[in-house]
Automatic annotation (TrEMBL):
Gene3D superfamilies, alphabetized: Beta Polymerase, domain 2 (3.30.460.10)
Originating species: marine metagenome
PANTHER family: GRPB DOMAIN PROTEIN (AFU_ORTHOLOGUE AFUA_1G01530), GRPB FAMILY PROTEIN
Name this protein carries in UniProt: GrpB family protein
């Protein structure tokens, strides 16, 4: 499969705000903190047109309380990835919720995810964690680091464009190819965050 990298689009911010409103309503009982992360959250950075969002809840014991309301509101739950990241719940939102009828509500271990079909219709990835954890913090740090260091963002963009020319088995293989760069810069981002006394929460 090919990875579609698009020039930065200001509409991505508006899409995030619309999804955030939806999530605030769905998860209101859990008092969620919601942040736009990933490449679409960094101005002028080319990206896959997928809105990455992280949702922070107060206690990891409540993670499974997010599943039913998210599924009931037409988000696809990727339970299959819980074994890799047990402290996260991952959901996919489609461009139009009516498309959900073409897919399972939950993809568990042993299920075959129809990646190509879902990739054509997906709008957003929702990552739900306990807020304030290392996983939550590193995404905030990396986002803000790229926003404040355009030369690093440019290097990241060049890497993504180069990788987009290749054929990949799936998106996970593409992500693995970016992993070394991300881990290196993410470590710098976390140090930068600490040195600059950046608040992780408003």
């Amino acid at each position: 499969m090919k990875i579609n990298i698009e020039t930065y689009n200001k509409e991505w911010t508006g899409q995030f705000e619309k999804i955030k409103t939806d999530l605030c309503s769905i998860l209101v009982k859990l008092n969620p903190k919601i942040e736009h992360i990933g490449s679409t959250s960094v101005p002028n950075l080319a990206a896959k047109p997928i809105i990455d969002i992280q949702v922070g809840i107060e206690n990891s014991y409540d993670l499974d309380k997010t599943i039913k309301p998210m599924i009931n509101n037409h988000y696809i739950y990727y339970e299959i990835y819980n074994s890799v990241m047990p402290n996260r719940r991952l959901f996919v939102g489609l461009k139009d919720k009516k498309y959900i009828r073409n897919f399972q509500n939950i993809y568990s271990k042993g299920d075959l995810i129809p990646h190509e079909k879902i990739n054509q219709l997906r709008l957003t990835h929702i990552h739900i964690w306990e807020h304030g954890t290392d996983d939550w913090n590193r995404h905030i740090a990396f986002r803000d680091y790229l926003r404040e260091h355009p030369e690093i963002a440019s290097q990241y963009e060049s890497l993504k464009k180069q990788l987009s020319l290749k054929d990949w088995k799936d998106g996970n293989e593409y992500n693995d190819a970016k992993d070394s760069f991300i881990k290196t810069e993410e470590a710098k981002a976390i140090l930068w965050f600490g040195k600059n006394n950046q608040p992780l929460f408003p």
